[in-house]
C-alpha cells in the first residue's frame, strides 16, 4: 500500500497532525506515514523527513527569507510524489507552501485532504478557485468555513476544532493552581507572548512591562508565563516563572491572561479564562495586512464570536499601561468585565463543535486512500 504524506509547517500544525497520526496508526497500523512535521507527529509514529521548526515564520516580509529553502523542499517532494509511493497528501494549514504541494500532487493524480484550511475569510479570497481546482477534500475547523468553501465548489466538511480533543479532561481551577504551586488565594495573571522566536522577540519586553504595571495596581498578583517547548526565553528579559507545554493548565489556574493573537485565544475560550489580546509585527507586514485583511477583528476568539468578546490591542495600540488597566479589571472575578467576557467565551466554545476532529480527519483520509 502506498504511504500518506503529511505536511505541517509549524508547531501548531505538528500538534494537530499528531492527533491525526495517532488515529491513523490506531485504525490502520499497516499504513506508512511520512511527514514534514515535528516531535509530536514523530512521537505518534510518523517518519519525519523535514523538521517543521526550520519553516515556522510569520509575516509577509519574514516569509521571503524562507523562499530558497521552500523551493528545495518542493523539488524533493515533487520527486517523492513522482515516484508513485504516495497515495494521499494531508496538508495542515501553512497555505503559502501547501498550495504549491497541492499543485504537485494534482499533477501526479494524488488526492489531497486539506486539514485546517487557509483563512480565506480574512485575506487571500483569490485562493478559493485554486483550492477548488487542487484539493480533493477540505476539513475546516471553524463552523462558518464549511458553507463558504462549499459555495466555491469545494467538498468541505466541518470537523470541529482540534483544541477540543486536547481539552477533554481539563483540570479544575483548584487542581491547576495546585499543579503550578499556587497555594494561596492570590489572583493569577498568565502571559502568552508567542510560540515562535520572532514573536517572543517582538512581544516579551512589553508583556513583562505589562505584568509590572499590573503589579503596581495589584501587588498581590501572581504572574506565570506560558511558552512553547520549542523556544528559548532569555531569563534576563523575563523574571517570572516559565511553564512549558501546559497551556490549558495555566489558563485554568489564571484569573486573566494577556495573549498574543492566535490559537491561544481559542484555548483561553475553551478554558473559560478572560483575556486581552495583543499583536505586533514588522511595520511593513502590518501595512500590507491593513490593505489585504478584510475582517474587523484579528483575534480568533472574536472572529468565531462574530463580535468583540476580548479586547484587542494591535501594533502601536499595544501599550503596557493600557493593557494593564484592562487586565486589572479582568482579574477582579466579580467585575462586570470579567463576568461578561466569561459568558462570551462560553458562546465561542459552543461554536467550536465537538471533540473528535482527529478521528474524523483520519476517517476521511482512509476513505480517500
Please provide a written account of the structure.
- This protein has 369 residues and is α/β, with parallel strands linked by helices.
- 47% of the residues lie in helices and 15% in strands.
- It has helices at 11-27, 39-43, 60-64, 67-82, 95-107, 127-134, 145-151, 163-166, 173-179, 197-217, 247-253, 263-271, 283-292, 300-305, 320-331, 336-351, 357-368; strands at residues 3-8, 33-37, 47-51, 86-92, 112-115, 137-139, 188-192, 222-227, 242-244, 256-260, 275-279, 312-314.
- The chain has a six-stranded parallel beta sheet, sandwiched between helices. A six-stranded parallel beta sheet has the order 9-8-7-10-11-12, with helices on both faces.
- The termini are close together.
Short note summarizing the structure:
With 369 residues, the chain is of the alpha/beta class. It has helices at residues 11-27, 39-43, 60-64, 67-82, 95-107, 127-134, 145-151, 163-166, 173-179, 197-217, 247-253, 263-271, 283-292, 300-305, 320-331, 336-351, 357-368, and strands spanning 3-8, 33-37, 47-51, 86-92, 112-115, 137-139, 188-192, 222-227, 242-244, 256-260, 275-279, 312-314.
State the end-to-end CA separation: 9 Å
Strand ordering within the main sheet: 3-2-1-4-5-6
What's the total number of strands? 12
Largest sheet at a glance?
A: 6 strands, parallel
- Tell me, briefly, the overall form: elongated
Amino acid at each position: 500500500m502506498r504511504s500518506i504524506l503529511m505536511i505541517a509547517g509549524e508547531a501548531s500544525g505538528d500538534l494537530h497532525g499528531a492527533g491525526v497520526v495517532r488515529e491513523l496508526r490506531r485504525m490502520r497500523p499497516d499504513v506508512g506515514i511520512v511527514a514534514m512535521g515535528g516531535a509530536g507527529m514523530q512521537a505518534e509514529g510518523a517518519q519525519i523527513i523535514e523538521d517543521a521548526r526550520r519553516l515556522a515564520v510569520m509575516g509577509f516580509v519574514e516569509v521571503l527569507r524562507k523562499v530558497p529553502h521552500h523551493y528545495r523542499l518542493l523539488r524533493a517532494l515533487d520527486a517523492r510524489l513522482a515516484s508513485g509511493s504516495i497515495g494521499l497528501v494531508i496538508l495542515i494549514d501553512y497555505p503559502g507552501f501547501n498550495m504549491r504541494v497541492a499543485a504537485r500532487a494534482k499533477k501526479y493524480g494524488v488526492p489531497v485532504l486539506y486539514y485546517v484550511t487557509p483563512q480565506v475569510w480574512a485575506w487571500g479570497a483569490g485562493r478559493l478557485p485554486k483550492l477548488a481546482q487542487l484539493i480533493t477534500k477540505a476539513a475546516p475547523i471553524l463552523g462558518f468555513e464549511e458553507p463558504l468553501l462549499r459555495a466555491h465548489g469545494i467538498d468541505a466538511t466541518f470537523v470541529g476544532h482540534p483544541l477540543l480533543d486536547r481539552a477533554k479532561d481539563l483540570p479544575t481551577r483548584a487542581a491547576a493552581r495546585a499543579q503550578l504551586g499556587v497555594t494561596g488565594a492570590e489572583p493569577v495573571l498568565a502571559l502568552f507572548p508567542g510560540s515562535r522566536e520572532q514573536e517572543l522577540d517582538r512581544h516579551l519586553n512589553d508583556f513583562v512591562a505589562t505584568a509590572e504595571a499590573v503589579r503596581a495596581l495589584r501587588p498581590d498578583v501572581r504572574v506565570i508565563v506560558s511558552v512553547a517547548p520549542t523556544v528559548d526565553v532569555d531569563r534576563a528579559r523575563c523574571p517570572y516563572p516559565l511553564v512549558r507545554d501546559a497551556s490549558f493548565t495555566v489558563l485554568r489556574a489564571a484569573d486573566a491572561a494577556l495573549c498574543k493573537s492566535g490559537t491561544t485565544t481559542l484555548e483561553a475560550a475553551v478554558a473559560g479564562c478572560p483575556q486581552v489580546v495583543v499583536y505586533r509585527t514588522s511595520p511593513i507586514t502590518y501595512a500590507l495586512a491593513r490593505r489585504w485583511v478584510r475582517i474587523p477583528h484579528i483575534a480568533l476568539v472574536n472572529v468565531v464570536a462574530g463580535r468583540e468578546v476580548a479586547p484587542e490591542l494591535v501594533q502601536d495600540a499595544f501599550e503596557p499601561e493600557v493593557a494593564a488597566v484592562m487586565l486589572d479589571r479582568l482579574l477582579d472575578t466579580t467585575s462586570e468585565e470579567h463576568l461578561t467576557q466569561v459568558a462570551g467565551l462560553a458562546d465561542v466554545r459552543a461554536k467550536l463543535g465537538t471533540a473528535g476532529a482527529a478521528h474524523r480527519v483520519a476517517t476521511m483520509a482512509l476513505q480517500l486512500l
